[in-house]
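ERR on first pass: missing label on line 2. Operator R.T. fixed the label and resubmitted. Corrected input:
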Amino acid sequence: MPEAQPVFLRPLKAPAENTGSTVAFGTDQPLVLDSGKCLAPLTIAYMTYGQLNAARSNAVLVCHALSGDQFVASRHPLTGKAGWWDYAVGPGKAIDTNRFFVICTNVIGGCMGTTGPASVDPKTGQTYGLGFPLVTIRDMVRAQAMLIDALGIDQLLAVTGGSMGGMQTLQWAASYPERVYSAMPIATAARHSAQNIAFNEVGRQAIMADPSWRGGDYARSAVHPSKGLAVARMAAHITYLSEAALQRKFGRQLTDRNALSFGFDADFQIESYLRHQGMTFVDRFDANSYLYITRAMDYFDLAADYGGVLAEAFRGTKTRFCIVSFTSDWLFPTVENKRVAHALNAAGANVSFVEIESDRGHDAFLLDEPQLFDTMSGFLGAAAAVKGIG
Amino acid sequence: MPEAQPVFLRPLKAPAENTGSTVAFGTDQPLVLDSGKCLAPLTIAYMTYGQLNAARSNAVLVCHALSGDQFVASRHPLTGKAGWWDYAVGPGKAIDTNRFFVICTNVIGGCMGTTGPASVDPKTGQTYGLGFPLVTIRDMVRAQAMLIDALGIDQLLAVTGGSMGGMQTLQWAASYPERVYSAMPIATAARHSAQNIAFNEVGRQAIMADPSWRGGDYARSAVHPSKGLAVARMAAHITYLSEAALQRKFGRQLTDRNALSFGFDADFQIESYLRHQGMTFVDRFDANSYLYITRAMDYFDLAADYGGVLAEAFRGTKTRFCIVSFTSDWLFPTVENKRVAHALNAAGANVSFVEIESDRGHDAFLLDEPQLFDTMSGFLGAAAAVKGIG
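pass 2 clean. output:
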């Protein structure tokens, strides 16, 4: 951790029209990755909401999940839909943009303005494709720290996020404890499980099986591996919901047909729902980014960097933690979130743990869950009060 | 139900070399399907083990699951592997072929000798492909009843099977109560859930996304939709295992590499295991059969044929039932199996219910599970004793 004041880095590029703000780092400021490779130049696309106070002490970093981006609380430029955490972030909401300066960045490897496999490799003048270096959750967090430096923020009041966003939150607390006043990882884990790696691998194989993928070199082609990416999204989407929620929402209800078609059209509502999820995803997401970001999740094993002892990742931390899980989440079940809480306890950290009753599965963290918002605003409010933020 | 002695139908074809025995029904004996269409001619491929006794009273019908076939207890002609239920069926085993005459048929729609989408449509002289009519679990059971007739068996001592085999078992007991002396449905449900339909739909979309699928018309092509089928199998395979079993068996263990590759090769053992499952499956299974059989499972909703009241499917039954589930099975969880047991109770049936403690997920029914075999042999032995079979 830098003990000194962070260096103010000058953005090299003007903010892009569609991706919010950007900050760019040249070849003189390479990001050294866990793989040993360097990423340079590097552009980070981000959005901010609310005002940074004079003391630069009210910043909250929100980290997005696999398919998310920087548009946490504002209309998405491609889909026109509300921000992915519009329920939680905004004026008067749990993460109150009247009080806090909220930052959300597109992760490296992403496809909404931050450098990723769809970016141009300056060495070749061509799109990176699979020439893009593999990135890890720690690399994503390193890039975010460069942005936080560039914004002149020494310490974040809070870091939070669900799923892969929770992984980044944990990594922030481990890598930069002095820069994270409080951390709220939601519906996440300190390591990706075998089952989760398995589901990610199915998604990757679906993409790679699509002949339009062309070994990742599809950028100049008119056809992108949309079918493979849609199948990947469909498989993943099932894991975001609970069996109970699927049964309640869809059960065996038929589409607008009156009877079974005795064919392969979408007879059941769950089928047309899943097909819709697959089809709309490909309009806003890059297949290679999907490969890279799922791989980063698979590689995540925070304890491994600390001799296999998770508590060591948090030894001596002064960060305030709040861990949140949902009862019906089977992708990042309560037991994995509790493992983090236990490690924090073992490290003597200030930690609270909340398991929220919900039948909506992993997706619950993105939905209208009042208990989540109460937990958030209570935790953030207390952190702000202790830190002396009005 | 035929009250009279069953008609002895003459097999029209000699047994095929690779698919065990076959019985064939000509256009004069069409199978009328739930869709209203007729299937004729129809060949049913089957295997038998043990000897039918003089009274023709010791026959046990074993019904296979989605990816199974008639080779329940003998070497598979394509893979060379032991039968899929070799643990359970054989001389001195739970389903003891020294005592019982075991019959196992490839379901209609299948690809191991029974008429399916890879068969030649006599109307066109070409492979059916998607011209094959959609079949249901009830249609599969109707075809099996034609075979049982042809074998001169009036009443089966038992019908059993796991997963889709359990669906057939339930359908047998509902459609032909007088012909089923005892029934043991294992790890199954009386209807396919929204989540299970969802996983099947992902598999179908993976196959249909493969350009080699060609709308189902790939038979004359050199290239089959193997990549799509492999992805479908990989996704399904995850659902056959429990999170706990995956963690125990694979965890985050790496393949023979010493470290992460920082690439998209199979770094984790779970990845190479899944890829292997996908690759080997395509050597023995037809992609169109996969579409048809998953669709039959999706359509299964036994209560729907009885005014929505499952107990009505079993009203007045004299069949003895034993329902078996496994604690860690999340594809056909205990609650779905219990629903069947409750309906049987409501119908006043003779039913026992056994939940077996296992962390091996849905796959447990195919594995070496002594408590399953004890349950089976006890249930079958009691049925045989009450029926007066030595």
